Amino acid sequence: WDMHQKVKQGIDRTLPPFDQAFATLIDDLEQRGLLDSTLVMVSSEFGR
Q1: Which of 10, 24, 33, 44 would give a disulfide with 3, using CB separation of 3.0 to 4.6 Å?
Q2: What is the rounded radius of gyration, in angstroms, for the C-alpha atoms of the chain?
Q3: How many CB atoms lie within 10 A of CB 31?
Q4: What would the pLDDT profile of 1-48 be if each residue is shown by its tens digit?
Q5: Are 13 and 24 in contact (CB under 8 A)?
Q6: Rounded to an integer, what distance in angstroms lies between the CA atom of residue 27 and that of residue 32?
Q7: Which DSSP string do the residues of 1-48 spell out, in sequence order?
């Protein structure tokens, strides 16, 4: 995840798996009835 060069290409490569995992987490929380009572946070370093 540490990118100092070709940041756009790196994000294009690494973001889709993260997006899929995050969506799966949200879907799972919703199916279990926990989404409304769960705080989900995502943070990144320097917006990368």
Answers
A1: 10
A2: 14
A3: 9
A4: 566 788 888 889 889 999 999 999 999 999 999 999 999 999 877 665
A5: no
A6: 9
A7: ---SSSHHHHHHHHHHHHHHHHHHHHHHHHHTT-GGG-------STT-
